[in-house]
Amino acid sequence: MCQLLGMNCNTPTDIVFSFEGFRRRAGLTDSHSDGFGIAFFEGKGVRVFRDDKPGHNSPIADCVKQYHIKSLNVIAHIRKATQGEVNLENTHPFIREIWGENWVFAHNGNLKTLPDMSDSLCQPIGTTDSEAAFCYIAEQLKNRYRKKPTEEQIFDTIREITAELSQYGTFNFMLSNGEWLLAHCSTNLHYLTRQAPFGKAQRIDDDGVIDFSDYAKDGDKVTIISTFPLTKNEKWIKMEHGGFVFFKEGEKIREILGEAKVMEDDGTLGNRTYVAA
Amino acid sequence: MCQLLGMNCNTPTDIVFSFEGFRRRAGLTDSHSDGFGIAFFEGKGVRVFRDDKPGHNSPIADCVKQYHIKSLNVIAHIRKATQGEVNLENTHPFIREIWGENWVFAHNGNLKTLPDMSDSLCQPIGTTDSEAAFCYIAEQLKNRYRKKPTEEQIFDTIREITAELSQYGTFNFMLSNGEWLLAHCSTNLHYLTRQAPFGKAQRIDDDGVIDFSDYAKDGDKVTIISTFPLTKNEKWIKMEHGGFVFFKEGEKIREILGEAKVMEDDGTLGNRTYVAA
């Protein structure tokens, strides 16, 4: 398994405070040491840094820390390999061009099998289930819509493909085209939105403290999504199993609550699907 | 216009000596200051560093220098924008997946027009003629061969597509899939192969000196391809207009000499195409 970190905001934001806690889980506070990667959108372009070395001491991760890149959408991943060797081509996030846009994808989980893709135009380069799943999503989207459809159609189609792929195993993932960021939770994903009044936050992994009021201005909205919470004193929302959230400009603009165990009238625990627009 | 730098070798090699001369042309010894990029193959994976700042003082380029990444195939580019704004998505090299491989492409030149690609599955993300040309090559290759064909078929097909695109303007480019590196010359490309006995080389751009015998071992073959020579005291081969070279493991394994002006029997200068396998 692995861990995921994402950011979606309405103003270019430096993710280093969150990333510095997150990367400690890649060999110090946790054992996700089989490579790391981080992708920063800049307009339609992407800066991507990957290493097959542990994120906590990778020189490439030091470089990321040093340059304080600001971005509206970021996806990062620390890997604990389940399928596929530890090497660069198996390191998330993965990138593909869809409808003339960079799409960035990272996955935490394990898909035991996948649909046949031998005739797909979009082929995985490495040997992970994650990249293959992303290629399947890309192929399906391109086949169903030759031109870019509406955001609603994109969201609904990805939801449909995700339901299909989720049958095969654990499928927590984040996906972004630089305009929006979509998160799907099979088992663990948490998020929070920072906005005025900004305050202090203390990291879980090394007690590092920041006062966001020193950096942010009124109107800024910064959503952070992470496998597990990164700070001690902020309220993280745990996503439900099967839940979907679609973030844009730092705001949650669409949500599927997923399946939650609820008490039925007869007193047993059942599954119900809650859908909210 | 822009400048190109490539490396193809039979042993993982550090390109920093060449890159340090090359990047000085991005704002110091020449004016290619509209961004830079460099892609290093590592197995089937690629490390790519890009910046829309000038290569000579980009912090990302400093990071590349610092970590001495070793690779069998490298493509780098410093940009002087002709078409497309100065931003990250317009920064070479460009990457696409073809037949489950990373393909890396960089271009020096200017294509005034391009075939209609509105229905292509492979679409450019930015607004350069270069990325559009690469997408055209990728689309054609995928359409003609659903599965990866032989190297000979790849080479011949790219040659055919290149002849078509070259009608539209200047088209110096380098292309690599991590196994081989292909260079096409419209106007300016030079190369040399370093092999035993290794000696000293002195950079043109800042007089930096290296003794390759301190680093290389017998049997190593390292080919460097560059728009203009990077060293003073080595023999660079100037490619002919229309020339093609296919390098693998540091060796030239196939070459098309291109068109050279030759004296005809009647004393006039004519075009003849020389082909060598």
Structure description:
- 2 copies of one chain form a homodimer.
- Chain A is α+β, with helices and mostly antiparallel strands.
- Chain A contains 4 helices and 16 strands.
- Chain A has one domain (3-250): Glutamine Phosphoribosylpyrophosphate, subunit 1, domain 1 (4-Layer Sandwich).
- Chain A is 18% helix and 39% strand.
- Chain A has a 7-stranded antiparallel β-sheet, covered by helices on one side. Chain A has a 7-stranded antiparallel β-sheet with strand order 5-6-7-8-14-15-16, covered by helices on one side. Chain A has a two-stranded antiparallel ribbon with strand order 10-11.
- In chain A, strand 10 and strand 11 (209-211) form a beta hairpin.
- The longest helix of chain A has 16 residues, at 129-144.
- Residues 260-264 and 269-277 of chain A have low confidence and may be disordered.
